[in-house]
Protein: Integral membrane protein
Amino acid sequence: MTHSIHPTRSSDLAPARAGGAARLLGSLPLALGADAAVTGANALLYLALAAPLSGLLGVPAPWLLGVGAFLACYAAAVALVARRAAGPRPVRAAVWPVVGLNLAWTAASLAAAAGTFFPLTGIGRTWTVLQAVAVLGFALWQVSALRGRRA
Structure:
């Protein structure tokens, strides 16, 4: 008895991988959970290191503490929305405010990077723009995942 072994070509796996990636990227709980995790990490960073970050970024330490406290609360709220999104009931009404606040944060970050609020250092300006891009990415991911839920 002979066995024929046919090696699997990587192209044979591409559709399965692409479908899995699309499902993963279309996951509303994942989009919200990632947002909550990154926001929570940012909150902890600002709360724990406000004084050294102040000089590095060009933002007053009390402002960083306030932003850190806000972000901690926001991360907790987004985590709750993510948990609801993983359940059987639709949560569209809870997700849209998250998207709206992410878009508002993006706009405020870009205004801050333009020098509207504080005299940011070069590192502060770069950090603020990168943060704006990341938050915009979360908003777009969440909208995309919401649209995928309709299908």
